[in-house]
């Protein structure tokens, strides 16, 4: 069993680059980034990876519609996904493009050859319906895809197959024993339902002609290209140096005792919970430890996607900032459920919780310190009950966040922080430190203000996991760059104000 101090490898799934990124994928990036940042904040070694799935028929067909070559088309869209990571201030350690990473081809070939050596690959003629949107053959009896509205395409060709049927019972045992943890429970139960009957063998190649020459060739069979999902799933190994000249990171983070968390949308659960573990079992490799399956971001109840109902994240990021977007996605969309987005709800949350909550708390606290002692942190006197309440809230916050993150409830973790923000604002309203200052009771005011500043220091430290830009600004204002463990410095002057989230009335 992994230990809390063991390394963490956390990944997003990698999207097709047939169009620009949408706000739904920004949700996935924010979830994975928060998990990575939290583990780093608790002193763990972390490797956090995202990327793009370049070898897809969807990408080829989109390039044809755009009137350009596939390479140029894929390069341009992949750059937009990298730009989205930068705009969201994700803490990526690596960004892997399946058509450009120097080690990806070798990793895919090594995985393919390992399955072949086990006797799990064979070739046969196949005729079935195909969903280009999912890049998969339909199940027997399936006449339409539940994920995509486009009609299924009839395909008949000679392809390579993977003996997934050999691994049905192994997958069931691993999932039932929680050796492969799938969250939420609904995704786990859905996976077990798929495994209630023996898995059908899986078509894992496509004709090079149908793929228009785009993709990785099947070893020793250049007329076939490797199925995009077999290719894409191998990215999790590529990013660690699997089958490279230096596999030490792979050995430590994938085959070692740490946790390996894949963050993915619910529409691709089957590929990660069934296909991927079966391939790994065939190849004799380690498995992920956790699959965190998040819901869809919807608009008016309908799923947001790149091809329809796309919602561009960049105007929102430019208008209201990185942390406003991160806050809404992480707090107002339950981590493992669908969540609806609207401009009205976004702006309401921004003004009510960020501007009037955290922003107002920071501004009024620093303003009170400035008026009390010309910006110097005041000396403390006797501590009233309100101070004790603040200190208890601050002390309990890290544990509450740890508990929420362990359950993959990032919305609850942020909620715990903002409960402390609300407590601070309530204490200010009830104790009226400005009245104490006016009456000259500076020692009492000093106790309150110092407790508020100490609590803000804890808030800044814990908030870095979720709102990294604002947290850095607050830490700099309070601590002057010193570690939180050193506490507030009494020899430095605090700024008179810090407007983290000014109220906004405009929408993109």
Provide the β-strand percentage band.
5-15%
Mean pLDDT: 89
CATH level-four homologous superfamily name of the largest domain:
HUPs
Biggest sheet, strands in spatial order?
Answer: 3-2-1-12-13-7
CATH class of the largest domain: Alpha Beta
How many β-strands, per DSSP? Answer: 16
| Tally of structural domains | 2
- Uncertain ranges: 481-485
CATH fold title of the largest domain: Rossmann fold
Number of helices: 18
Shape: elongated
| SSE-based structural type | alpha/beta
CA radius of gyration: 26 Å
CATH architecture term of the largest domain? 3-Layer(aba) Sandwich
Task: Give the tags.
18 helices, alpha/beta, four-stranded antiparallel β-sheet, Rossmann fold, single chain
Summarize the structure in short.
With 508 residues, the protein is of the alpha/beta class. The protein has 2 domains: 8-317, HUPs (Rossmann fold, 3-Layer(aba) Sandwich); 343-486, Isoleucyl-tRNA Synthetase, Domain 1, CATH 1.10.730. It has helices at residues 23-41, 57-66, 70-87, 104-117, 168-176, 185-194, 228-233, 235-238, 248-253, 269-283, 313-320, 322-331, 343-373, 385-406, 410-431, 433-438, 442-463, 468-479; strands at residues 8-12, 46-52, 94-97, 121-131, 136-137, 153-162, 181-183, 202-203, 205-207, 217-218, 221-226, 259-265, 290-294, 297-299, 302-303, 339-340.
Give a verbal description of the structure.
By secondary structure, the protein is of the alpha/beta class. It folds into 2 domains: 8-317, 3-Layer(aba) Sandwich (Rossmann fold); 343-486, Orthogonal Bundle (Isoleucyl-tRNA Synthetase, Domain 1). The protein is built from 18 helices and 16 strands. The chain has helices spanning 23-41, 57-66, 70-87, 104-117, 168-176, 185-194, 228-233, 235-238, 248-253, 269-283, 313-320, 322-331, 343-373, 385-406, 410-431, 433-438, 442-463, 468-479, and strands spanning 8-12, 46-52, 94-97, 121-131, 136-137, 153-162, 181-183, 202-203, 205-207, 217-218, 221-226, 259-265, 290-294, 297-299, 302-303, 339-340. The strands form 4 sheets. Strands 3-2-1-12-13-7 form a 6-stranded parallel beta sheet, sandwiched between helices. A 4-stranded antiparallel beta sheet has the order 5-4-6-8. A 3-stranded antiparallel beta sheet has the order 9-11-10. The protein is elongated and about 90 Å long.
